[in-house]
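User: Predict the complex.
Assistant: Input components as received:
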Amino acid sequence: MSCEAYRPKLIEAAAMPAELNAALQEHLDGCASCRELHAKERSLFVAIDAALSSVANGESTPSFLPRVRAAIEQERAASVASHSRFVLWPVAAAAIAAVAVLFVVFQRIPPQQQTASQLAASSSATTPATGSATSSSTNSAADSETGEIASESKVAQREIASYGVGKPRSFSTLAKSEGRIESSQMPDVLVPPDERIALAKFVAALPRRHEIAVALTKPALAAPSADVLSTPLEIAELKLEPLSPEQAPSEAK
Amino acid sequence: MQELVLTQQGSTPRSATDAQRLESEAATREAFESHLTECGPLAFRVARGVLRNTADAEDVAQEALLRAFRRFKHLRERDRFRGWLVRITFRLALDRARSAKRREQRETLWSRPERQPPAPTAEDLAARSQFAQRLDRALDELPEKLRLVLLLSAMQGHTLEEVAVLLGVPLGTVKSRLFLARKQLAAKLR
């Protein structure tokens, strides 16, 4: 075996110090150049190991570990603070939500007490004729029409009070408050107080004027059948006369 | 320490759950402190083996230990803490070395000659031997897996079996990686 064949094995043997096998040791004993190569490689790896040892075994400064401990304490304090914030945030959010809900609820409640008192003033101011009719009804019990109007007015006042007329309110707001329509179905139309008073009066008088109420509130009939629509056949030339005795049927005799 | 301050202010644990949590945190702190004393120098050495600069290595080791602290309570097998810390530190050190290299290249590219740092003096050059500089370059060119095995095995008190345990690989793998690393290193330095 030539030296060229031994050299890779010699380098590997220098890289990982171990017992050289017998064949390699025998060649080294007899070959000066390979022995020199092996020694050179061994010295190279010794230098590498020394340099690596100095690189890998450096000592940290004495302040290293205390500094790490301080950083960890700081981290821990920050995490505790963030935990506290994490606990407080939902509480704060719930409080804000509760306040918002209360605000919305109070905004939507109609001011009934105020409207009732305002109603009396407004109805007397806006409908003087009705007011005089009310006074005349007390004086003249025989005037039934006037008395009826007066009672209607009182009922209307109660109705108006229940609706609330403190300020002009939109029809859609009224309808929404009564749950009759969805908020998105109706445009926002302002209804003046006098119109709402008139409507309330009309609604209050409806039970007394039963026929009108029935006619207005009765649902439309379905399309009548052809039998109902067909009028009786009338023939002007046809004349009906009683039967003469000769023409009477035999059973009558 | 933070819990101690809270206790002094009168906020005693409100429930058994809180008390258990505080006890658990105290136990975790104590366990981490013992690991810190034992493994802190190891983290520093790993970082220094990559960066070859004491200040940078301390910064990286501190960052690695902080990360380890954040995840320590989620670590199920604490026997593997050393290996876990070594891998975190090695990865962070590699990132730091790469970013430093990129920064150096950028500054070299963009800075004008009059703003460049002064050339190293004869004393500076003498401080680092030519062989050590060549070794640094050769180490930087090694594959990461080989470099980590080489550094760990060069640390005092680390047998190959311990390196295998640290890295979670078989002993044969450690030996073969070490052999390859030394061969490649020698080839670059020859």
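Chain A has eleven helices and two strands.
Let me know if you want any component modeled separately.
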